Amino acid sequence: MHDSTIVSVKNLKKYFPVTRGTVFSKVVGHVKAVDDVSFSIEKGNTLGLVGESGCGKSTTANLILGLDPATSGEITVAGRNITQIKGRDLFDFRRSIQAVFQDPFRSLNPRKKVKQIISEPLSVHHVGTKAEQAARVRELLELVGLESHHEGLYPHEFSGGQRQRIAIARALSLNPEVIVLDEPVSALDVSIQAQILNLLIDLQARLSLTYLIISHDLAVVEHVSKHIGVMYLGRLVELAPREMLYGNPQHAYTQALLDSVPVADPENIKDATLEGEVPSPLNPPAGCTFHPRCPECQPECQTLAPQMKEIEPGHLVSCHRRQKE
User: Fold this and answer.
1) Residue range of the domain that includes 147
2) 227-253, pLDDT tens digit by residue?
3) Are residues 108 and 49 in the same domain?
4) One domain for residues 60 and 87
5) Which of 119, 145, 175 is the last residue of a domain?
6) What is the pLDDT of residue 263?
7) pTM greater than the 0.85 cutoff
8) Are residues 88 and 181 in the same domain?
9) Cα separation of 274 and 185, whole Å?
10) Are 73 and 2 in contact (CB under 8 A)?
């Protein structure tokens, strides 16, 4: 692990048991929501995780936040292995990592004023006096582009973009080292999305923040991320610096995602259709889980699961064909 690494995920797995029966329930299988995922994020950088709905992105985020226990694997945040801490240690750990969720209207308590929402983490962790907390709220509002008089208003009195700014201010209240952003702009109008993304970039530069951003939108991830990981059916299939992944994608699934991004020029529109449906995570295909939909499938792909391997410095891919080239 590099000295500047602040988040390290190794062989992370999260399996949800599937039971049958009402009285004497029996485990009949497992949904492999996250299946042997590894990556790291250096301090002050951003990793974007992309993929279709149900690929395991948000589950990975919840595991890193400590909201769900991992089935196996190791998660290290700021030098602490969070898979081995509990109780008071877990409570203290939460000061170093915070989250911004998809829908700011649902993530903000409608019965509380903005000053109560932003100061709540300070109160829970007993940080500062009442006067110091009030001053911190005003400081955070200014930091995210709102005004001090907004502290006396309720969430419903703001636009969607303003509510997300409030959620970001709350996440910043404890001076976390890492912020997990789960689809932070997908619930906002397109005209507002760029404003929030630019705010996140500015805050990162000013406060040396580290981001993990979860999104299905490759354009959003490209705008804010230095490194990008592509997930499919619980597995990481490609991991690379932004320029490499967008300029020279190596996995067929990554290429299909990039081809599906809307473009203004009709002559540059590509056929991004993938055959078949996403397989069930309860019964994933043998070998490479993407092989039933892959246009480059070879016999070994149907029986042997590929491992993540580095094909050029910093560029990892899970594909038999690419690893042979």
Assistant:
1) 104-175
2) 999 999 999 999 999 999 999 999 999
3) no
4) yes
5) 175
6) 62
7) yes
8) yes
9) 26
10) no
Residue 151 is predicted with a pLDDT of: 97
Structure tokens at 272: 């991004």
> What CA–CA distance (Å, rounded) separates 34 from 92?
26
269-319 pLDDT, tens digit per residue, is 555 557 777 888 888 889 999 999 998 898 999 999 999 999 999 999 999
Q: Are residues 203 and 60 in the same domain?
A: yes
Phi/psi at 269 (5° precision):
-70, 130
Range list of β-strands (E), the chain? 5-20, 26-42, 46-50, 72-77, 80-81, 97-100, 178-182, 210-215, 227-232, 235-241, 309-312, 315-317
**What is the DSSP track for 217-280?**
-HHHHHHH-SEEEEEETTEEEEEEEHHHHHHS--SHHHHHHHHTS--S-GGG------SS-PPP
CA angle 57, 62, 68 (to 5 degrees): 130
The structural domain count of the chain equals 2
Residue type, 133: Q
Whether residues 292 and 146 fall in one domain? no
What the block records as the tokens of 147 is 């005004």
Residues 73 and 156 in one domain: no
